[in-house]
Write a structure and sequence with these properties.
This protein is an alpha+beta fold. The protein has one helix at about 55-75; strands at about 5-10, 10-15, 20, 25-30, 30-35, 50. The chain contains one helix and six strands; from the N terminus they run ββββββα.
């Protein structure tokens, strides 16, 4: 499986989609974020679990989530790393 990745404001955002077989929306959205100094987050997901039917859309949603979390950290001081 190909994993989407992008660089946003010098942070690397990697889609981390978890498949769940046997349910109508089998792909759970999530991401990992790596800072410019190479610190990485654990797997991050939306506040409410988000499941999508197709892998490509789940990966795109994961990247969008990661970009949003980076923006929140840089613009509003919300910590990414615990």
């Amino acid at each position: 499986m190909h994993t989407l990745e992008c660089v946003h404001r010098n942070y690397t955002v990697t889609a981390n989609v978890v498949p769940h077989a046997g349910i109508p929306l089998p792909f759970e959205v999530g991401c990992r974020i790596t800072s410019p100094d190479k610190h990485s987050t654990r797997r991050l997901c939306a506040h409410a679990p988000l499941f999508l039917a197709d892998l490509e859309n789940a990966q795109r949603a994961s990247i969008a989530l990661g970009k949003s979390l980076v923006d929140q950290q840089l613009d509003k001081g919300r910590p990414l790393f615990e």
